[in-house]
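Subject: mismatched residue count in predicted assembly?

I count 599 residues in my input, but I want to confirm that the predicted structure covers every chain. Input:
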Amino acid sequence: MGEETNAIEARGLVKRFGKTTALAGVDLTARAGTVLGLLGPNGAGKTTAVRILATLLRPDGGEARVCGYDVGRDAHQVRQLIGLTGQYASVDEGLSGTNNLIMIGRLLGMSRAGARARAAGLLARFELTEAAGRPAKTYSGGMRRRLDLAASLVGQPRVLYLDEPTTGLDPHSRNEVWALIRQLVADGTTVLLTTQYLEEADQLAHDIAVIDRGKVIATGSPDELKARTGRQVLEVCPADRADLGVVAALLGQRTESAPAVSDESGRVTVQVSDGRLLPELVREFDDRGIELAEFALRKASLDEVFLALTGHRAENPRDNEPAEATGRRKLSRSAR
Amino acid sequence: MTTFVPARRLGPVTGLRNSFTLAWRSVLKLRTNPEDLFGLLLQPIMYLVLFTYVFGGSIAGGTHQYLQFSLPGIMVLSVVFATLGTGMMLSQDVATGVFDRFRALPIARWAPLAGAIGGDMVRYLISVAVTLGFGMILGFRVQTSPLAAAMGCLLLLVFALAMCWFSAMVGMLVKSAQGVQLWGFLLMFPLVFGSNILTESAKMPGWLQAFVKVNPVTYLTEAGRALLTGGPAATPVTRSLLWALAIFVVFAPLAVRAYLRRT
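Triage response: the counts match. Full output below for your records.
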């Protein structure tokens, strides 16, 4: 296999469950040594795609290759190259952290001593040494997720599938997982990351495939996707909060779109499609004697991109979901 | 990066090695899960005490005579119910996603099933040993030879090895461990108690006698009695083995098929 081979290549994947079509012809490409973010709301087909690529499900149509090996015909080879961390941490709750990892090592053909050493090394790296001897059922959510990740790394996989690795984690644990993923990629691992969090894809992925209702509706780097909507966002923050209303009114007039006023941050944001407007605006503020603390043009966030692409909003999660507490935004269907 | 060329197929010994590792896991879980071990140890003791002292006086005219009669049957009962654990554990592994992890590993596809069942043989052995041991404390005496008694225990384990494929199949078809317990009990209760383990079948109604006569548990119990307390053993042992073989031949492929389909 040459260095140029894409680590993951899927063409026209179709999967149906009864009358539901989970995947309706999905193409995916992950360049070796990069992170491909598979971004989409719940039920978009992300997990189905991962399960096919991990040899756990047979597609009804299309084909997929991992490091050049077909996930159907060469499943045994593919399994030697991949690591899988599921959405629900699939560690054996009855076993200690150490024994969970030793078991995987032994299944991969390591010697007893080799498996033990690898387990100890991974537990240390994931800061689980103290809890190593305890059954996994006593672990916190974050610890369990780390153990799950460690379990998928025992065999030093070339391609790692992370199916919503931070769903339900608190911000601290999430940052830890992110740091681990970055480190793995720096070591040359290819990662397929599924996520409902725009921020996560923005932070980690080199390429993003936006998936919705079983179809890939956009692909590109985070920057390309943001640029694709052709819109930019202007943020204006007057030095004196009393001017907030005047600023908002003026921006509304000039850009012909509805500005969003945040009293909390004392900032007005508005979408602009024409950059030539900016000098004009600066002059006008100056003429009216409004002093500005901040005047910045930025690319649309992925949030805004997602709305433009799908026509439905990236909403706040429902109240009872743990992500709400962490203040993270999650994609969900607008029509429920 | 070095070019790693993955092996084309599994080596012939790998599947066995995988199963061994997974059997080790099952046994390890027994150690870290005190409730499970407790249940495994206490259930036979409970059966022995209850059946011996509740039924003993009225059925056999004395607890000692009754214990001599019922102990082989209680051994069968304990082991058959213990096979339910196999299905429950497999069902749990599917539900928690542990099987997904196994199946994404380059191991033999049948290893998770074989490993679970191999590990469970240790459970059955514990169950048989506790029943016999506690029975002897209560006054049961082996009236044949230690070798014959050992053969009786071995026969039980062989039968359990066949029965647990049935349990594995239920575990693969039913969605939750609780479901396995419910279905397992519903199917196994008539099998276990519609037999001669607790009393002779002579006073039962005709339709029940007909069922008792073909019930494998009956043959197994008769074989156990013959090997532990004496009597003609050849016929019931042969029939028990044939039944075990039949159960295995029917349910092992069904369980494997359900397993491949479910996962």
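The interface with chain B takes residues 1, 3, 51, 54-56, 69, 76-84, 86, 88-96, 99, 103-104, 106-109, 135, 151-152, 155, 158, 188 of chain A (CB under 8 Å). Marking this ticket as 'not a bug'.
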